[in-house]
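I hope you will forgive my troubling you with a question about protein structure. The matter concerns a single protein, recorded as an amino acid sequence and a row of backbone structure tokens. Please examine both parts with care and let me know of anything in them that strikes you as inconsistent. Here, with my thanks, is the record as I have it:
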Amino acid sequence: MKRLSIIAVVLALCVVALGAYTRLKDAGLGCPDWPGCYGHLVVPKSSEAVSNANAAYPERPLEAHKAWPEMIHRYFASTLGLVIFSILFLSFKARKSNPQLPIKTPLALAILVVFQGLLGMWTVTLGLFPTVVMAHLLGGFTTLCLLFLLAVRLHSSPDPVQNSGQGKPNMALRFGILGIFILAFQIALGGWTAANYAATVCSDLPICQSGWQQHVNFEEAFKFWGHGIDDYEYATHLGADAKITIHVAHRVGAIITTLYLGSLFIWLLTRNGISSTIRQAAVAALAVLVVQIALGITNVVMNLPLLVAVAHNGVAAILMMSLIFLNLSLYRSGGIKP
């Protein structure tokens, strides 16, 4: 089960990256039905199958270059679901001989992956409804993080809690947990930006073009339901001001997140009495943060190149895992009394 947990983490990271690729390729409705593609398990190829597909969905004729990314994403997501249920089965089976094995996390993952499947279906059937798209993205990140937690637990022996005696791990752990919430909120803002096609509306640094303050419209930008339309592709229901507001919120969130996490990591590295594990985790997290900042700036300067934008999503997931591992290290050093 240890190896399977590692496979699941890698697979979940691939699913997150493929989901980002699908969104950025505007391929979210490459297959307008679910779970198949125009009624097939694979993208239709023959001229007859293509003709039948176009006749069945005349409003969305088949575009193979969009359909394939969507289906590959579904294949990987389905495989991940099977792996998660395999982990759950093995957990129940192995728990008879080893009661210490975790069961709550695999069970939560199984429930979550079913809900993720529903969100994936609603993403298509509701025409890329932004609230569902963002929820689907956050569900993917949550699945990845829970799998990462499970893998770390399975590969770690239960260490005794060691306290430095100076209360520093306690304070650091509180700051670290707050960092997780700040990063999660920033990831949600990024998902909302992508779901509303607002990633390219601001081309200047650090916030947006000159005069952006006159275009702020939070009411329209963060309206999560009640739009009264069936198709949200390209976010034609939003005005320019709303998209600018969404993008600005993501930029401001990025600045706050960078300042907070950067300060946290540097503060930990300058503390006395911090274990080598915590120090190494802080160095790794700081390095990932620097890479993420560089990718974000590159997205702005180069007008959202596809691979850089996909990497920006993937590195956000890696940053969250790095922060989670750092918090686990702080916990094991006495941050919270068990």
Observations:
- Residues 160-168 have pLDDT under 50 and may be disordered.
- The chain is about 70% helix and 0% strand.
- The longest helix spans residues 64-95.
